[in-house]
Amino acid sequence: MNPYKSKIICSKCKKRYKKIIESGKVKFICGGYSNNNGCSERTVISEDFIRGLINRRFQKELSDEEIRDVLEYILVEDKLLMEIHFNDRSEPILLKGNFIQF
Ligand SMILES: [Zn+2]
Questions:
Q1: Can you tell me the distance from the alpha carbon of 8 to that of 90, in angstroms, rounded to the nearest whole number?
Q2: Structurally, how many domains does the chain consist of?
Q3: Which of 45, 47, 59, 61 is deepest in the core (most CB within 10 A)?
Q4: pLDDT at 6 over 90
C-alpha cells in the first residue's frame, strides 16, 4: 500500500508526485517531471524522510494505514521546502530550509 498515493503535490506544476524505487528505496518524484511533461522540478523525496517527519509529529511510529488516514496532502517545493497538511486540521508541518515547525 502506498499511503501517499495522490497526496504529494508539486508546487510548481500542481501535478501529483509518483512513486519510484531508487536503490531499493521508495521515493517520490513530480509526475510532470518524470514523464517529461513540462515540469522542471526534479526533486526526489524519500519516503523515509516524510515518514520521519510524520512520526515525529505524532510521537510514534505510524502504520501505512494510519499515515493514509491522517495525511491530507503534502505540498512540495523542493527537498527542504514543503508543507505537510493533516486531516484533523492541526497546524501543518512547515519545512523551510533550516527551519522546521512541527
Ligand atoms: Zn512538477
A1: 18
A2: 1
A3: 45
A4: yes
d(CA 35, CA 59): 36
Terminal-residue alpha carbon distance, the chain:
26
Evaluate whether residue 90 is within a structural domain.
yes
Query: What integer pLDDT is reported at residue 21 of this predicted model?
Result: 95
Report the separation in Å between the CA atom of 57 and the middle of ligand 1, taken as the mean of its atom positions.
26
- Report how far ligand 1's centroid is from the alpha carbon of 48 (Å): 21
Distance (Å) from CA 60 to ligand 1 centroid: 31
Residue 2 maps to a domain: no
Q: For 25-81, write each residue's pLDDT tens digit.
A: 999 999 999 878 889 888 999 999 999 999 999 999 999 999 999 999 999 999 899
For strands 17-22 and 81-86, give the pairing: unpaired
**In 3-state terms, what secondary structure has residue 77?**
strand
